[in-house]
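Review box. Two proteins, two foldings.
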Amino acid sequence: MVTTSTHDFWHGRQTRVGPYAEGMRRMGSDEWAGLVMLAVAVGVSLPALLGLVPTEIGRGPWIAVLSVFVVCLLLAVLADGRRSRYAALAGAVLSSWALVLTVHVSGLLPVILVVMAAVSAYLVPVRAVAGIVAGNTVVLWLAHLPVETFAEPLVMVGFYLLIQVASVLSSLALIREQRMRRDLARAHVELQGASVLMEQSARSAERLRISRDLHDLIGHQLTVLTLELEAARHRGAEHGRDHIDRADRVARDLLADVRHTVSELRAPPADLTEAVRRVLEDIPGLEVELDMEPEVSLDEERSAVVLRAVQEIVTNTLRHAEARTLTIHVAQDGHEVVLTGSDDGRGDERLTWGNGLRGMAERLTDLGGRLDVDGSGGFTVTVRVPAV
């Protein structure tokens, strides 16, 4: 059994995939950043939470609003579905406005609005983020409006507006960087797969060239050999000696050519395990564990289909699953080779097949194979290829 992680393969270490709870995503850098922002929001609320700052609605109701804000922000960061994220974010935004508007001396409490602006950049489109920033600015203006001079609320609102814009731009820059890394990872997988398949195609072309050369060369030499022997037979022993000598030279040359051609054809066949490893090697942002039985053996056409399937599984994981870990298992099951790819991403029970999956299914159908996809609790793709 061949078991390795593509990140740690050359160091001899293994990475195991633990159980994954259905409906929950693993904590990544984005989720941890959201929780840190939540901690900041709670921290700036401590004066009102501890009763050090008076509130217009009473301390108990204000704490209840703060609790709603915390729960909604947690759901917005950790929820899987788009509708649930949007609903939770709307609840967090409205409750943050209520918190700021119901405190007499806001202090650092408006930082909550900055947190909401930064978090929203990860969850909703840019237009919606701009709307949240505009709403936060209006709330800040209303919260600081009851003052003696016009300049004080203007300076305060302008200051927090600049901080919100800076936070949103920073978040958008990080999102673009993450998107570029995912695109780079997909391009890396496609390049690795194309490189392996091109090598296999080159070997096929070389074998075809050798077979043609063998046909042309041996056919010509056998023709010459037949003519020389026929001439020697008709001319007798004394006059046919020259023909026999030439036939002997032709036979020796023919034997040498056959040996050379056979040595080229006996080059070791492509190693499917090594080819799959190369496709999975050093994928940015994704930990891949390969578990492949050594007795798996396929011809060139079926090996190419398996490599294409591995490439498609990794590409879909990077593009759609938001996963941290992918497990690839390849085993011989009777007269079939079974390839299974399972990730720990968010999955989708209402899965819609794209062109990649449809193309893979068509290639497998042509070979008498089958493709199954399960989107519950992460994506699981099962490919069955007849071994012969």
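Next protein.
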Amino acid sequence: MNIVSRILAALAALSMCMTTVTPAVAMSSRIKDIASLQAGRDNQLIGYGLIVGLQGTGDGFRASPFTEQSMRAMLQNLGISTQGGESNAKNTAAVMVTANLPPFASPGSRIDVNVSSLGDASSLRGGTLVMTSLSGADGQIYAVAQGSVVVSGFQAQGAAATVTEGVTTAGRVPGGAIIERELPSRFKDSVNLVLQLRNPDFSTAVRISDVVNGYASSRFGGPVAEAKDAQEVIVQKPREADLTRLMADIENLVVETDTPAKVVVNERTGTIVIGADVRVSPVAVSYGTLTVQVTETPQVIQPEPFSKGQTAIQPQTDIAAQKSGGRVAMLDGPDLRTLVAGLNNIGVKPDGIIAILQGIKSAGALQAELVLQ
């Protein structure tokens, strides 16, 4: 075997012993999942209506006089005279009706509406929303709602107890509103597309513009996108392009997303969410809890027989203090898994971890934004 053959054999053996290292896979998403079209935003609608058919759980006319006024006005519009009579039936409730009008909605399509009680009604279960007009911010009527109300909560009441689960004074009418007016939209006449990031980030905005320009260069022969700031990316319309088809092609392009490091803490529920890019510099943490228990055991003192004394109560209080924990642990979080393992090794509950994270942030060792909810 000559020297060249020996070298080739050695290289082959060395390649068999080498371990293949897989590069880290970045998080990739379609543009439609991380950004929305500025011209395609929702519009909020609102209206005032009545719910009828309740089983004695509606508004009381004394506490909610506007309900009676609305009911009388509705009956008069239907040609029924209501003068000279009073009604005490609690089967009607006044509600506010709200809905979101989706972009590019056409007349005749249906949308869901939400209803919320305005008066002292105890439950909207089993009621029917009568015809209610829904207006936009400009005062124009865009939809009309009507239908059976769906309430997720329930209420059971007896002579001495009441059980309530969920909210019974708010409900939903699925597909209960019919769109009557089309939004004034001139999408086809626009000269550009404005993409708004749902999570503003400069890195992601620049990557979106780069990916769109790569697509436009191969399709139209030049770049068309520019990152205006951390939230907006402006895409100019080429002369020969159809705007709808251009948006359909752009929204399916895949972009590598980036987000800042954050730790979200909800002190009410004890929830802790730690982002993947959170880092903790080496820091020593000591956590200890002090438990104080107070027990009251009053003693009753009786007077001697025939002593004409009075029965007295002598207070007696026992206080016990107990301190647990107090271990000193080293936290060094170069990655998320190491950080979580270090927090779990301290052996504290979520409320203790929240206090530790706040202390680490105050010490300047938490390389992330701490969001308190």
